[in-house]
Amino acid sequence: MTPVRITELVVGGFRNLQGVRLTPDARANVLLGANGQGKTSILEAIDYAASLRSFRGATRAQLVGHEADAAQVLLRVEGAGLSHEYRVKLTRTTRDILLDGKRPERAVEYFGGAACVVFQPGDLELVLGGPDVRRRLLDRILVRVVDGYGEALKSYAKALRARNMLLRERHPDLRAVQAYDFPLARFGAAVVRARESVVGELVRAAQAALGEIMKSSEIISVAYRAKAPGDQVAYAAMLASAVHNDLARRTTQIGPHADDLTLTWSGRPARVVASQGQTRSLALALRLAELHVIEGRTKTTPALLLDDVSSELDRGRIERLFAMVTRLGAQVWVTTTDPAIASLLPRAKRFEVTDGKVAPAPPSSLSP
Fold this sequence. Notes:
The chain is an alpha/beta fold and 368 residues long. It is 46% helix and 22% strand.
């Protein structure tokens, strides 16, 4: 497997970050500093350049610093003997992206080259939250590994919005509503098929990761619950039979926008029976499974971004996680307030983050 290596990061005007220029280590990097200084924002900038989404759910306007007119991120990566340059410029209303100096034509071309996997405190919602959080997990994987998936997802969302707008009119036109059944069935069935194809890999990888992190034999199950079939003809027939119900409820009820990825722990719903520690471990296992699936499909190991890991896992699980990451060969980025955590990665390059600025960590911050 060829790891994705971030070789340079330049950030300005993104959140509170100004004048950030990092040349990271190829294997491990630790960002040290007090809360609120910008450590998470550095990871967010990396992942935003790679995925064009904020893992904190922020809008473009929120990503641009209060005193800045625009935010810019430059990310240089190497992998499989190739180097790529990602440039993203944001204003509060616009976004310009360049891959190697050109506008990318295909989603998989852009998202595949700088794959990152992020584990952060909000990932507890993968277990405890609603279906939309788990759907995003699947979509984040598939846009990187299935050619055309990003385009199908975008086209489906566009048709769904248009159909729902018609359904919400005071006197909906039935024929106008049904005109969207073909694009919904075409793109929706493609989304369902792709999601179903990846679940088996995801559950096997999550089970293996959970066993290694927790040293537990508990059995987890991950199942994709689709409201519509992956066959386009059957999907269209289901839409036709449900149209009067949709008119009554004023929304499209079937399709991948309503599907769920259900999680069970020893046969019971994980969100109900898992303890707080088990929930954290399961969320981490899902993220490591994300890495594994991308690696297996692309033969490239994504960079792993671990935000505030010391608040999410106990020391034993952190040690086992770092050992696992070392074996994988992934480039890892860790944010923490605790120098003792940094000591668990003794060969890591350490940076200190203070008020949006980054500098090499002084020797006094390197020991627990």
